[in-house]
Write a structure and sequence with these properties.
By secondary structure, the protein is of the alpha+beta class. 54% of the residues lie in helices and 16% in strands. α1 runs antiparallel to α2, α1 packs parallel to α3 and α2 packs antiparallel against α3.
Length: 192
């Protein structure tokens, strides 16, 4: 068996490990890739002298982790990587976590994002205390109109009929939690 077959098997094993990243196979393809790399080393020792077998083993030990690390570093910059990874949103969220908390809207604009579309961080916080109307029955989730915009909302445990007035109680990440509006809630909204 020619020596190049062992090196080709190493590359095929690395490719199988990479395919495991994109195909949900429960680790089967990745394990098969690892098995292919190990088979390449075994074949290097069986069909060649110990020095050549050692060369194949060292190549596998160096090339496999190096190819995976380099691939993980380069992949986000490739065409496919840019399509699969949400870089702008994550970068914006990381910046807002590490900054002093001011400038969320400016950071969103810098990354070409609207804070209202991010959810969580600054996304829906401005809705707390606002009143609106349940567009669907909330049991406990549904749709509501708040400030002339539709939102997916969750009631705070109570059953709210379609058409009832609601008030945003709190925002939990990207969830808008509402409760049935009290009389003084709607009076405060109309006064402002």
């Amino acid at each position: 068996m020619p020596l190049w077959v062992s090196f080709a098997l190493i590359l095929a094993g690395i490719l199988a490990i990479w395919i495991e990243i994109f195909v949900p196979a429960g680790g089967v393809i990745g394990l098969a890739g690892g098995g292919i790399v190990i088979s390449a080393v075994v074949l290097g020792f069986v069909h060649h002298d110990p020095v050549t077998g050692s060369l194949v083993m060292v190549t596998a030990l160096i090339l496999t982790p190096t190819a995976l690390v380099v691939g993980f570093r380069l992949f986000p910059n490739t065409f496919l990587g840019k399509r699969l990874i949400l870089g702008k949103v994550e970068a914006w969220r990381n910046r807002t976590r590490t900054e002093d908390g001011s400038g969320g809207a400016e950071l969103a604009a810098e990354y070409g994002l609207s804070p209202d579309n991010i959810g969580g961080m600054d996304g829906y916080a401005h809705l707390v205390g606002k009143s609106g109307e349940a567009m669907t029955v909330l049991r406990p989730s549904g749709t509501a109109i708040i400030d002339d915009a539709r939102y997916s909302v969750v009631s705070s445990g109570e059953y709210i009929e379609k058409g009832e007035r609601i008030t945003v109680a709190r925002v939990e990440g990207n969830r808008i939690v509402v409760r049935r509006a009290r009389v003084h809630d709607t009076d405060a909204q109309t006064a402002t």
